[in-house]
Amino acid sequence: MLNKDREVVYIGSIDNNARDAVSADKLYVEDAIEALENNKSPEITKTKAIGCTIKWAS
């Protein structure tokens, strides 16, 4: 997730339950959005995501 200055403020999982979103009790992306809407930095800025990584050329 990027802030208005296009700086990375959160990277990782959407929530803490990859198998069942309804059972998730930590909503990382929603919490990060709420923090940005309130002109704050997200409390959690990085989590481990499950799945393929994104690769890019330098």
Summarize the structure in words:
The structure is a single chain. By secondary structure, this protein is mainly alpha-helical. It is 17% helix and 0% strand. It has 1 helix and no strands. The protein has one helix spanning 28-37. The longest helix is centred in the middle third of the chain and has 10 residues, at 28-37. The two termini are 20 Å apart.
Task: Write a brief caption for the model.
The chain is built from 1 helix and no strands.
List the helices and strands in order.
Answer: H
Structural class designation: mainly alpha
The strand count comes to 0
Q: Uncertain segments of ≥5 residues (pLDDT<50)?
A: none
Q: What's the number of helices?
A: 1
Assess the beta-strand content as a share of residues: under 5%
Radius of gyration: 13 Å
Largest sheet: none
Shape: flat
Question: End-to-end span in angstroms?
Answer: 20 Å
Helix percent reads 10-25%
Mean pLDDT: 92
What would the keywords be for this entry?
mainly alpha; 58 residues; 1 helix
Provide the fold topology.
Elements: H1 28-37
